[in-house]
Automatic annotation (TrEMBL), chain A:
GO terms for cellular component: connexin complex. Belongs to the connexin family. It is found in: Cell junction, Gap junction; Cell membrane. It comes from Cuculus canorus (Common cuckoo). This is Gap junction protein. One gap junction consists of a cluster of closely packed pairs of transmembrane channels, the connexons, through which materials of low MW diffuse from one cell to a neighboring cell.
Automatic annotation (TrEMBL), chain B:
One of its GO terms (molecular function) is gap junction channel activity. It is a multi-pass membrane protein. Keywords: Cell junction, Cell membrane, Gap junction, Hearing, Membrane, Transmembrane, Transmembrane helix. GO terms for cellular component: connexin complex. PROSITE patterns: CONNEXINS_1, CONNEXINS_2. It comes from the Eukaryota. A connexon is composed of a hexamer of connexins. The chain crosses the membrane at residues 23-40, 77-97, 132-158, 191-215. It is found in: Cell junction, Gap junction; Cell membrane. The keyword Transmembrane applies. This is Gap junction protein.
Length: 222, 262
């Protein structure tokens, strides 16, 4: 799987981010993407082959695996990474739109196309809200789909064509659970970083506006 | 497996490290990451397929494998490498912050400006002093802590560093006690001992670097105290000289900035 494209996109976003935004990019790169590629992918590689049921009935294993893992954990993880990184593209597109506009009109319309003011600030805030929203949605979805973040050793399956109830054994449940907890911890860390960046930006710009208004008011008085 | 990104990030930190830090980085990349990717992964590649238990009971092999290997060696090493490399990011962020401040000062045309242009700021190698010293030292401390924690976790989980040939398993649904055989135990033991040895070398390098930094810090402090005691006038003369130089620099800087903006 080629994650080079995502890496390039995130490196591009880094230029227009705040300090906290850069920490978020570092956390996503190192603790989520790198861990995914270096470790997690291999754990789930043969999950279907190694899923074993105590039965000779053909088709029973397939049906039980499909019932307990509608979407594999690892695919969920990959999807979450892609969806959570996508809102950052809004900022990149807005800056590109600004630069394009300047070229089109052949004059300097902005002090600096990459400066976080006016429209770009709104875009940045929206991207932060979307990122946080997606993280929370994925975590809740994961919790609902798998009834928590635990991976059991044994699951009991009684779907046709399995006769009665059949014991099915999941491979490497402890290792999978450790990495799932790691995934949840890094997601929560990213949510905290996004929320703190959001409050930092809102406070900074509200203060700026208030000071500006205060100066104007003083200026008009004198 | 994409360790290239980590290599790019850490390569940037290399410029601002001490010599021992550079040796540490080389050891990390050549003897740990490269060995992990090129050799160790192949050795552990077929670990569950070739883990064979002397039973026909379905599920017994899965349960026994999970019981004896809660987390695979290879994954533990990958996590250890990631965690051990992360403190270097703190240094990279601090250097980037310093660079950003110097750029801001340069653009504002401040009195303290000592650079001809922005390119020089980008290329400059910062000395490890002031707050950067504290960041660098804490990053080494965290590295040490992570290395030690992972080594202890490894020792605790696998009861030592040897990979046994045979493991006796009596977890349900295995009937009674079942013999399970690990694939390539000798090769795995060799690589485990190699990785542990290199981890120990890295710990020693980190301890040496920490001692070196502390010694340098105390030496510098005692020199400063010594100078202040014995040569108070001399220091005043030096200060006035420095002030004159600063004025000259700031004048030339203003001219450069005016030339830059016009």
């Amino acid at each position: 799987m080629s994650w080079g494209f995502l890496r390039d996109v995130l490196s591009g976003v880094n230029k227009y981010s705040t300090g906290i935004g850069r920490i978020w990019v570092a956390v996503v790169f190192i603790f989520r993407l790198l861990v995914y590629m270096a470790a997690a992918e291999n754990i789930w590689k043969y999950e279907h082959d190694e899923f074993e049921c105590n039965i000779e009935q053909p088709g029973c294993e397939n049906v039980c695996f499909d019932h307990f893992f509608p979407v594999s954990h690892i695919r969920f993880w990959a999807l979450q990474l892609i969806v959570v990184s996508a809102p950052s593209l809004l900022v990149v597109f807005h800056v590109a739109y600004r630069e394009n506009r300047e070229k089109h009109h052949n004059q300097k319309l902005y002090r600096n196309p990459g400066e976080r003011d006016g429209g770009l600030l709104c875009t940045y805030l929206i991207s932060l809200i979307l990122k946080t929203g997606f993280e929370i949605v994925f975590l809740v979805l994961f919790y609902k789909l798998y009834n928590g973040f635990k991976v059991p050793r044994l699951v009991k399956c009684d779907i046709r064509p399995c006769p009665n109830t059949v014991d099915c054994y999941i491979s490497k449940p402890t290792e999978k659970m450790i990495f799932l907890y790691f995934l949840v911890a890094t997601s929560c860390l990213c949510i905290v970083l996004n929320l703190s960046e959001l409050s930092y930006l809102i406070c900074k710009y509200s203060l700026k506006r208030y000071l500006k208004r205060h100066k104007k008011h003083q200026g008009s008085k004198s | 497996m994409d360790w290239g990104a980590l290599h790019t990030i850490l390569g940037g930190v290399n410029k601002h490290s001490t010599s021992i830090g550079k040796i540490w980085l080389t050891v990390l990349f050549i003897f740990r990451i490269m060995i992990l990717v090129v050799a160790a992964e192949r050795v552990w590649g077929d670990e569950q397929d070739d883990f064979i238990c002397n039973t026909l009971q379905p599920g017994c092999k899965n349960v026994c494998y999970d019981h004896f290997f809660p987390i695979s060696h290879i994954r533990l090493w990958a996590l250890q490498l990631i965690f051990v490399s992360t403190p270097a990011l703190l240094v990279a962020m601090h250097v980037a912050y310093r660079r950003h401040e110097k750029k801001r000062q340069f653009i504002k045309g401040s009195q303290k400006c000592e650079y001809k242009d922005i390119e020089e700021i980008r290329r400059q190698r910062f000395h490890i002093d002031g707050s950067l010293w504290w960041t660098y030292t804490s990053s080494i401390f965290f590295r040490l802590v992570f290395e030690a924690v992972f080594m202890y976790a490894f020792y605790f989980m696998y009861d030592g560093f040897r990979m046994p040939r045979l493991m006796k398993c009596s977890a349900w649904p295995c009937p009674n006690t079942v013999d399970c055989f690990v694939s390539r135990p000798t090769e795995k033991t060799v690589f485990t001992i190699f990785m542990i040895a290199v981890s120990s070398i890295c710990i020693l390098l980190n301890v040496a670097e920490l001692c070196y930094l502390l010694a340098k810090f105390f030496l510098r402090r005692s020199k400063k105290a010594g100078n202040a005691k014995h040569h108070p006038n001399h220091e005043n003369k030096e200060e006035t000289k420095q002030n004159e130089m600063n004025e000259l620099i700031s004048d030339s800087c203003q001219n450069t900035v005016i030339g830059f903006t016009s």
